[in-house]
Every structure is written in C-alpha cells, then in structure tokens.
Write a structure and sequence with these properties.
380 residues; alpha/beta; Aspartate Aminotransferase, domain 2; 2 domains; three-stranded antiparallel β-sheet; 12 strands; globular; binds pyridoxal-5'-phosphate; metal ion binding; 2 iron, 2 sulfur cluster binding; transferase
Length: 380
C-alpha cells in the first residue's frame, strides 16, 4: 500500500541503515569499555552522533542525553524534575499534548501538583491569553509540544518560553514531530528541555534524546538506576547502532530539510486540493499556515473515518495518533479544537514524507475520493 502515515513513524532512510550496520557486527563494542579499541571506537561513534543531534537543534553535544525515545524523554523531564524540585508546585501544559506528557501530568496531579491544562484555539494553537494567566510564580515547568501529531499545528514556543522565564519557570517542549521537519533551534526558541525521537525523522525506532540546557542537568532525578551512563541521567549500555543511525538521520535532515519541506508541503497541498475538488464539504483541521509540511487532517462529510479507511486498503491511513486509534473514544486533540463526536469520528490523518511521490499522492486522492463517493451512494 501507499504509505501516508508518516506521523506514526517513518521508514529508516537506507543511508541511515548503511552507517548503522558496522556497529551491529565488527564495531560492536560497549562505549563504556575504555580499555580496548572496541570500546573506544563505539564511544567515538556515540560522541559523533551526539554532535550531529546537537547540530540539528542548535545545541551543544553536552546538552544531549540519549533515551529510548520521546516517550522516555517526556517522562524523564516531567517526573525527573518534579521529584527533585518541589519548591514550586504548578505544571502548565496543553489539551493537545501526546499521552506521554499527559499521563505523567496525571500522576503529578495525584502527587499533589497543580496541573493546569491550557485550552487551544480552533486552529490548534495554544490560547496565549490563557497561558499568560496560568503561568505564575508558582509554576515550575511549562510543557508544550512544538508541533501536533494529529493536526500538525505549530505552537508559539518562543512566546511561551518568554512567558515561562519571566515567572522563573522552565520550558519543556515535546518536539518529536517537529525536529527534522521544520526549523527548530533551542537557542532561538529559548528552550530548557526538548524531547526528540529518531523514528520520526527517518532514523531507527527505540532511540531518542532529551535536550537539557547546560546547567539544568543536576535538577533532574533519573528514572532508572544503574551505571553512570549519559551523565548519570540514563543508565544502561548505550544502543550504539541506533544512536549512530539517529546521528546520521539528523545530519541528513539538517542538509535536506529546506528542500524536503517544500516538496512535501507541495504534495500535501496537491492532495488537499484534489480531494476538495471531488468531495464537497471537506473540512481541513489545524492551522492553515503554521502547520507541519507533511500533515493533513481531514474531516469528511457523511461517513465514518474507520469505514472510509477500510475501503481504501491500497493506502495506509490512520484516524488519529497510532497509540490511541483503535479506541472508540474520540481523539482528545480533535475534541480540544472543537470537533464534536461525529466530526471527530469522520476525521482521517494523512502524513506525507521523504519517500512519498507525486504519483502516489494522485493515486491516493483518487482512491479516497472514489471510496467516499461509493460509501455515500450506498448510504454507508
Ligand atoms: N510525542 C509526540 C508528539 C509523538 O508524536 C510521539 C510519537 O509516537 C511521541 C511523543 C512518542 O515518541 P516515541 O515513539 O519516540 O516514544
């Protein structure tokens, strides 16, 4: 099938696989084994990857902590910061965060923290007036995603960082969907912590990073206990091949992002216009301009999204985030932007990426439109 679910995950770029392979066989050393060349070679590879990840987001290598992915990074910052610092007891987040932010927030609420969940505007961006009112002298952390995994909306992170810092709070952003897709620079945005995931940017699964601004590392308590790897923040033998692949994926993204983002956005616009020409009453969700280039979230009239998807088996589509689809609850993101139950259940998410071709987009648009026409004719 034609793969149009790049928000769920991306294939490893073959160039990434190429650089990983030697670290699965000949260069298999443990980077903590400093006595021999096996270990030293692995350690050098990890440090090079750390620099490549740092370079993509405008950080220093010493500010990158490798984790198993954005889920772990989100947990590490939310739970790790609050277990060592309880001087302030308010956490501010938004209604459209990924579950790996919202679930730790739920636990923090149970532990007595005051969690403020900011509403978003119908375009999916955070209500800044509400943010300004919520971020106060009691606020320890503001955690807001950079871009949404369902509707693609990009948040005003620089403004939120400024609001947070004015009140002495720290700013974390879950940048899993943004890094490698849109310009993202921790210095320019004023970020203190950022979560990154390799498998969203053509790297391997099960590897990611937490960016920790220099000087803030000691404020985090690790989630796991063990050896002293990753600056005592994340023990466990490093996944060297995955880290090397993550580094290469970041290097490629840095080189190719401007061109790729233009190409992918043009394909997305083509898909949206072809569908809109054939299906009256389509509704596109998310911010019209401040949106991920490969994202399209579409609410269809008169049908249910899962029925539509089942009728387009030649295209790999999804209703919402991969982790919550399959439940009958409507997506919390679509609900937060004001869609009702029926609209949320009539919404599909399309993710276009590096390996999507124009032919695939034209074919997918045609197949989706035909399936919709048939279902409507048949009265579903
Ligand atoms: N945050 C966002 C916004 C995501 O889209 C995802 C994707 O699943 C995650 C976090 C989790 O990332 P990972 O799969 O690396 O744990």
């Amino acid at each position: 099938p034609i793969y149009l679910d790049y928000h769920a995950t991306t294939p490893c770029d073959p160039r990434v696989v190429e650089v990983m392979l030697p670290y699965l066989t000949g260069d298999f050393g443990n980077p903590a084994s400093g006595f021999h060349v096996y270990g030293r070679r692995a350690a050098r590879a990890v440090e090079m990857a750390r620099e490549q990840v740092a370079a993509l987001i405008g950080a220093q290598a010493s500010e990158i902590v490798f984790t198993s992915g954005a889920t772990e990074s989100n947990n590490l910052v939310l739970l790790g910061l609050t277990s060592s610092d309880q001087s302030r007891r308010r956490i501010v987040t938004t209604a459209v965060e990924h579950k790996s932010v919202l679930e730790p927030c739920r636990i923090l609420h149970e532990r007595g923290f005051e969690v403020v969940v900011l509403p978003v505007l119908p375009d999916g961006t955070v209500d800044l007036a509400a943010a300004e009112a919520a971020i106060n002298e009691e606020t320890l952390l503001v955690s807001v995603q950079t871009a949404n995994n369902e509707i693609g909306s990009i948040q005003p992170i620089a403004v939120l960082a400024e609001l947070a810092h004015r009140r002495g709070a720290l700013l974390h952003t879950d940048a899993a969907q943004a890094v490698g897709k849109i310009p993202f620079n921790v210095e320019e945005l004023g970020i203190d912590f950022a979560s990154v995931s390799a498998h969203k940017l053509y790297g391997p699964k099960g590897i990611g990073a937490l960016y920790v601004r220099s000087g803030l590392r000691r404020r985090l308590t690790p989630l796991l206990l063990g050896g002293g790897q990753e600056f005592n923040l994340r023990p466990g033998t490093l996944n060297v091949p995955a880290i090397v692949g993550f580094g290469e994926a970041c290097r490629l993204a840095r080189e190719e992002m401007p061109e790729e983002a233009r190409r992918v956005a043009a394909l997305r616009d083509l898909l949206e216009s072809q569908l809109a020409n054939r299906i009256p009453g389509l509704r596109f969700n998310g911010h019209r301009t401040r949106r991920l280039p490969g994202n399209s979230s579409i609410t269809f009239p008169k049908i249910e999204a899962d029925v539509l998807i089942a009728n387009v088996p030649e295209v790999a589509l999804s209703t919402g985030s991969a982790c919550s689809s399959g439940t009958i609850e409507p997506s919390h993101v679509l609900t937060a932007i004001g869609l009702d139950w029926e609209e949320a259940h009539a919404t599909i998410r399309i993710g276009i990426g590096r390996f999507t071709t124009r032919e695939e987009i034209e074919r997918a648009a045609h197949l989706i439109a035909i399936a919709w026409e048939r279902l409507v004719e048949a009265g579903q």
